[in-house]
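Quick one: structure tokens for this chain, please?
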Amino acid sequence: MSYKQREQVRIPVETLCSELVGEREHYGLIVDFAESGLKLQRPLRGRPKDCDGRIIQLEFEMPDVDEIVWAKGEVCFDQLWRGSLRTTGVRLVAAATRHLRMLRDYVIARDEARRRDEDLGFSLAWASHWAG
């Protein structure tokens, strides 16, 4: 992953994901989105024999939208953590154009909302608490 890509805004999310390797489906959790990729966490397991290297096939639901996304991504980093957890950064390289646009627009809108909240000096959590 290039330095420029690593500077992209990251939006925290929690959405389930399926990683398809050969004929097998493995489950994980997407923990953040960027305009061109995502970070995936899943249980540590051995590298499947039918894995073709750095390209993975993913299926996930866009948060706040009733839309399933199928995408191919390039593994940009892969970290192993204590407790048998694997974290993988994925740059999306192929998906439906509308899904790529939807991801980009989602990240931009969430980032703009976060910046507005910071400028106003409060978070939505506090606002909802005081609203009732």
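Residues 1-5, 127-132 have pLDDT under 50 and may be disordered.
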